[in-house]
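for the writeup, i need someone to sanity check this before i put it in the appendix. the sequnce is what the collaborator sent (i think, or maybe the updated version? ugh). structure was predicted straight from it, no edits. if anything looks off just tell me and ill rerun, i have time this weekend
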Amino acid sequence: MTRESDLFIEWENGAGEAFETARPLRFGPAASSSLEGFSVSESEGEEGGCRSLFCGTLWLDPPEARRRFVRALSAILIRYRRRMGIPRQGPFLVCGVGNENASADALGPRTVSRVLASDPAMREAGIPAVCAVRTGVPRDTGIDTADTVRALAGVSSAVLIVTVDSLCARSGSRLGTVAQITDCGLIPGSALRHSSGEISRRTMPCPVLSVGIPTVVRASALNAPLPGSASPSEGAEEDGPLFVSRADTDTMVTCYASLIAQAVNAAFTGNMPDGLMPSSSGA
């Protein structure tokens, strides 16, 4: 059974047709658990696993909820790193995928701008090697995003690629309310039907760990057609998919960019911000 998900690499339309070049991923039944007070859905497949951290509207919540989110996400990232057998010292390549000039697609670039990259002096002091880059988008760089990431991984000798990207939700209620983490990779832009190449263990020189927040939803997913009638957005879909985002997307993305960056820093450099000491259940 194909598991529906917000992750681009798993996205397919109602007829089961995959818009990305790779085949849809298949997962077993989801298991539910709790971490730092948040519900977590965990699914495993032949090519890796996927975890959904249901966090609600964090950008509207008090600081304590955000601190718990950072602890929970960093714990999940650490568990994935350990499961992959990745050495703690790296080098790690953190890639912010997306267009920083569009709020709904700016999660990756805004996150990376807050990730602690380590220079040679810091590495000599024992801080793990971390490289943080914004990949840009093909229409601005002229280079396929996957090719950019592959080249950067080679130059940095990365043992793990961490991508952060905005995702497409499967329902309006999931906009900004769930964080997804997977070691299966992703295909940026596949939901828009202009894929910029697969970023996964199969196509990169090292394993890939992807983190994302759904920031847009297809308009067709918001309008259930009446029996015997066409979907209200059917005409728009013929010309191209129409996507909708929240009115407060800019605030939402800025909040999550900060929180994800804190979690990445904690998981890969050990740099835990003040007030975010690891809990006793940390990985």
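The chain has one domain: 29-223+231-268. The first strand starts at residue 31 and ends at 35.
thx in advance!!
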